[in-house]
Design goal:
The complex is a heterodimer of chains A (296) and B (235). Chain A has 12 helices and 7 strands. Chain A is of the alpha/beta class and 296 residues long. Chain A has a domain of 185 residues: Alpha-Beta Complex (2-enoyl-CoA Hydratase, Chain A, domain 1). In chain A, a hairpin with a 2-residue loop joins strand 2 and strand 3. Chain A is globular, with a radius of gyration of 19 Å. Chain B is 43% helix and 18% strand. Chain B is globular. Classes of the chains: A alpha/beta (296), B alpha/beta (235). Chains A and B meet through helix 2, strand 2, helix 3, helix 4 and helix 5 of A and helix 2, helix 3, helix 4, helix 5 and helix 6 of B.
């Protein structure tokens, strides 16, 4: 929910998000729709294509500092990654190796690999993965913003966690296999994708923040996303052996501490949060105040 | 081919690979070189525990055996599909495994993958696809989704998908499709130890998959589009 003073990130399109997030007038698109670089594979399957293949890439400034940005459009095939879409992301990341901006921002919104061109999409996601890690290894932070209507799943869920930080709103969702995929494959008793409360407390922003999968939780307000992204530009990427050993210890600790939990409520209770069943209804500032020092 | 047979054929000079559940790791001897091996058996679904254990095995090699090549022999039906794995952040565990493999590469370990059973979606993405080069046995299976499931999800008739898959490598399962698209460098057949030795010695030049896919006419746009986005002048 947003009031008149805020501008919803959730309800915006990819292009609107870029306009609201970046310094006014600073965005320059690379391979804009006028170039008509579309997926050849969708056409062969008689499926409508988009002139940007569902992702907008370009350069801009954020707080006066140069950034490269990509925004996936959930409104086109759920932001799914095909050959062209993925190559745009990879090319943008590799451009960062040449231009050395202050950071790369990925406004993710994706169901993962686009099934109409599944093999090309899967390979493309792995190229994005390697490019993200190359950019970080070069000392340039890659920051993910996740607050769109389609969430971030599949290969893009892995890509997000390769980056320096994930900024989420409560409305954002982050995972690997979407609830519908799990329900379709494993049955409704495994994951009831129509149980909205269950879905939100499993893959939603609040739980991701409590687990440490999201670094920052913000309100569904584009100005809040902007402020969080700006602050993260000063983050120094660390992919050293020591850093990955620390991550390994943290993930091992999560397995030990919460491996037997079957619901987010169990995890929240074990984090020492009183009345965990109240967390979903708290607004973001109250939630953040309630969980201070309680994150995993 | 089962993993024991595969290991014997890859390492005729011997290996000390140990199996624990659906995971194995150890060291093989190839033409006088030690090669670290990390893999899975039985089309294992990769859940959080397995991703964590494989990452641990990779970190162990980086820590204790600087520069030792790593061969991934991952047989997987894909990521484990479960509410509980999602609850605990399986994408973070998969990303961690990918980061560890990338760390190894950056620290001078050659990372090779050989698909000997199945390689599917997220399980493939977080493991063998991070290799410097990935190879496959001719009878291996690589896919995102089988065609009947794809037809259901995309609402495109199965007959149409089947017909198109005869000429397009883009969506149908198959090792040959991944070969044409550049994700599989070559198929290994016959003298596996000899092909491993060659792969350990071959020169490397970054992520070459786009260029290979273009050369083999299986993925004709990826290299060109990525290059344009990287290099086009911006007003």
């Amino acid at each position: 929910m947003t009031d008149a003073a805020t501008h919803s990130y959730y309800e915006d399109s990819a292009r609107e998000r870029l306009l609201g997030l970046l310094d006014p007038g600073s965005f320059r698109e690379i391979l804009p729709p006028s170039e008509r670089v579309v997926s050849p594979h969708l056409r062969r399957l008689d499926t409508p294509a988009a002139f940007d293949d569902g992702v907008v890439v370009g350069k801009a400034t954020l707080g006066g500092r140069p950034v490269l940005v990509a925004a996936q459009e959930g409104g086109f095939m759920g932001g799914a990654v095909g050959e062209v879409h993925g190559a745009k992301l990879t090319g943008l990341l590799e451009r960062a190796l040449d231009e050395r901006p202050a950071g790369v921002l990925l406004l993710v919104e994706s169901g993962g690999v686009r099934l109409h061109e599944a093999n090309a999409g899967l390979i493309a996601v792995s190229e994005v993965m390697r490019a993200v890690l190359a950019v970080r290894a070069a000392g340039i932070p890659v920051i993910v913003l996740d607050g769109g209507q389609f969430g971030c799943f599949g290969g893009m869920g892995i890509v997000s966690r390769l980056c320096d930080a994930v900024v989420m709103s409560e409305e954002g969702r982050l995972g690997l296999s979407g609830p519908e995929v799990i329900e379709t494959t494993m049955g409704v008793e495994e994951f009831d994708s129509r149980d909205r409360a269950l879905v939100w407390r499993t893959v939603g922003g609040k739980h991701r923040y409590l687990l440490g999968e999201a670094a920052v939780l913000v309100e569904d307000d584009i100005a809040a996303f902007r402020a969080a992204a700006l602050a993260l530009l000063d983050h120094a990427p660390d992919l050293s052996l020591a850093a990955l050993e620390a991550e390994h210890a943290a993930l091992g600790g999560r397995l030990e501490r919460f491996g037997d939990c079957r619901d987010a409520l169990d995890i929240w209770a074990r984090l020492g949060i009183a009345e965990p069943e109240r967390l979903p209804i708290l607004d973001t500032p109250t939630f953040l105040a309630t969980v201070t020092d309680k994150r995993a | 081919m089962d993993a024991q047979t595969l290991l014997k054929r890859l390492f005729p000079d011997g290996h000390d690979v140990a199996f624990a559940g659906d995971c194995f790791s150890g060291t093989g001897r190839c033409c006088g070189n030690d090669v670290a091996v990390v893999g899975t058996i039985d089309n294992a679904p990769i859940g959080i525990e397995l991703a964590y254990r494989m990452a641990g095995a990779v970190l162990d090699v980086v820590r204790r055996h600087p520069g030792r090549p790593i061969l991934l022999l991952v047989d997987t039906q894909g990521q484990r599909l479960s509410h509980r794995d999602e609850l605990l952040g399986i994408n973070g565990y998969m990303a961690h495994l990918a980061k560890c493999l990338d760390l190894a590469r950056r620290n001078g370990h050659r990372v090779l993958g050989l698909v000997y059973g199945q390689a599917v979606s997220g399980g493939f993405l977080a493991s063998s696809m991070l290799a410097d080069r990935c190879y496959a046995l001719p009878d291996a299976e690589i896919r995102v989704m089988n065609l009947p499931a794809m037809a259901r999800v995309t609402k495109i008739p199965l007959e149409r998908l089947t017909e198109l898959s005869a000429s397009s490598p883009v969506f149908a399962p198959g090792v040959d499709n991944y070969l044409r698209m550049g994700a599989i460098a070559a198929l290994w057949d016959g003298d596996l130890a000899g092909q491993l030795a060659e792969a350990l010695a071959a020169p490397l030049d970054g992520d070459e998959r786009r260029a290979l896919g273009e050369e083999r006419r299986g993925r004709t746009l990826a290299r060109q589009v990525a290059d344009r986005v990287r290099r086009d002048a911006v007003a």
